[in-house]
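Researcher: Sequence of UDP-N-acetylmuramoylalanine--D-glutamate ligase follows. Predict its structure.
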Amino acid sequence: MVKNNKNIVVLGAGESGVGAALLSQHKGYGVFVSDFGKIKENFKAELIENNINYEEEQHTESTILNADLIVKSPGIADTVSIVKKALSLKIPVISEIEFAGRFTKAKTICITGSNGKTTTAFLTHHILSNANVNVGLAGNIGKSFARQVIKDEKDVYVLELSSFQLDGMYDFKADIAILLNITPDHLDRYEYDMQKYVDSKFRICQHLTKADWFIYNADDPIIMAEVAKRNIVANKAPFSIKTTENVAGYINNNNQLIINLKPELIMSIHDLALKGKHNAQNSLAAGIASKVLEIRNETVRESLQDFKNVEHRLEFVGKVNGIEFINDSKATNVNSTWYALESMENPVVWIVGGIDKGNDYDSLIPLVKEKVKAIICLGEENDKILEAFTGVVDTIVEAKSAYQAVTYGYELAKADQTVLLSPACASFDLFESYEDRGRQFKKAVRSL
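Model: Prediction complete. Tokens:
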């Protein structure tokens, strides 16, 4: 625990950083916020209103390296110069989640994975809310954990955790840890060493006790290989859509979702609000977590049936002259896009592109052959996409704005076909963020 009046420096002034600064101030610590970029006006106003010292577009080393503790925003890599200097001086550098976790005794359900964690977090929160559990939702989504812990009125927090957040967590532990899948992503932050990325994801299991639960995907070969190597003492609850053996939840041959924690829950997968194989896995994970907390079967079943998916994740935007438009802007890697294409039932005009994160598109080729009739590249540099899919799809065009991409989509698609924005890339070449990309897409669809 940090002693009163110690110097805390917060690096990064987004939602995570400002939340950590507010919590620091609330606990009576000296706090200084430093952002190497420009601070957004709403966050700057909050810092000023609360008399919190800050700087932007610079890092003043003499102030930062005088810290007793540094709370680092997840977007800042450990390789950044100021972080390396702090670590060399033995100044602890932790994540906002680690910091906030020191000030709550609430139960935590911690969810990570390369894909599906946002949906699973929202779905778990939805079930618990419907069961009248006093529950908060934080981590990689919504209001920061630190901001919520200031009042700390919740009994349970559902936390979506990225590998970057997990990297800065040392003493923190989950009560229920959920690991959905592991596929190559963000490898530029892990020296292109897949094992380092895997180890990062498995930090979700750190400090688990025999009283805790580890819920994980038994269909994921990387996860299963790691579980076999590690001594995880928590109660294990694997789930599968491929086998019914030795798992806590599964899909059987009759298309029923079954969770065999007593009392056993059985429901048809056709009743699930979320469609597609990957969403069956997300539903199993959220359902098992809810059953661990002894939520009634009726509430779990009803919640899995009436859930509305999150913005920018396979979000239905509308139909125009029989053409369906779907916003999956949050799909910033190949695996997320694979899941999106896998769940499509109609022929697809696919909008793809942006900043490539070292993508290998080979895994998409069978699905693209089967489902995609045209491709619209939405990015500054489309060479890799053109190289991967020329000859696989007859029609490939390039667009430089969401409006142009939607217009092409409307021209290329026919009634009972789908225009799918699922970029498989980051957004920062043409847009501020994946949210900005998704909102511009939706605005363009509504202007048709």
